[in-house]
Write a structure and sequence with these properties.
Elements (H helix, E strand, L loop, with lengths): L1 H14 L2 H23 L11
Helix pairs in contact: 1-2
Length: 51
């Protein structure tokens, strides 16, 4: 999810499409939060680790 967010940020920046930019930021933040929770050891969505 983090990688998809970064890709959408880059594509949105290069093409000037603000919707892709916004979706990229949202996916990047959600992916970072899930990654952080998984790294700390909290169960995320019934999984012990989130990759």
């Amino acid at each position: 999810m983090v990688i998809l967010g970064v890709v959408l940020l880059i594509v949105g920046f290069l093409t000037g499409i603000s919707v892709l930019w916004t979706i990229g930021i949202i996916l990047l933040v959600i992916g970072a939060v899930l990654w952080l929770f998984g790294a700390v050891g909290h169960a995320v969505g019934g999984r012990r680790h989130y990759w």
